Amino acid sequence: MNTADTPTADTPTVVTSDDDAVHCGRERIDALDAQITALVLSRVEASRQIQAARVADGGRRVDLRRETEIIGRYSAALGRPGIAIAMALLELGRGRA
Ligand SMILES: O=C(O)C(=O)C[C@]1(C(=O)O)C=C[C@@H](O)C=C1
Fold first, then answer.
1. For the whole model, what pTM was predicted?
2. Does 67 contact ligand 1 (Cβ within 6 A)?
3. Which residues constitute the domain of residue 60?
4. Predicted confidence band at 22 (pLDDT cuts at 50, 70, 90)?
């Protein structure tokens, strides 16, 4: 929608196909974000269970070799932002290193 299409107090709101595309796109993004958030929470739970099992077995809560492998995987798939995503996921699962 360009400035000429922007509704004012004097003009009625006209829904254009641009508006539809933005609205539909945002609905899709909102649904994807809800799925991503649910997946992140599932990952947090899985991570906590692994850590608890390792600690109960006398091991360390953190496994840096595994973390390096995960960060490498996200980096290969998504580049530099993938590293930030992997580190955020790891922090959510184990707390601050
Ligand atoms: O894979 C493991 O061994 C885990 O404990 C899970 C996890 C993770 O969240 O991915 C969490 C802590 C470890 O330092 C490494 C990885």
1. 0.84
2. yes
3. 16-94
4. very high
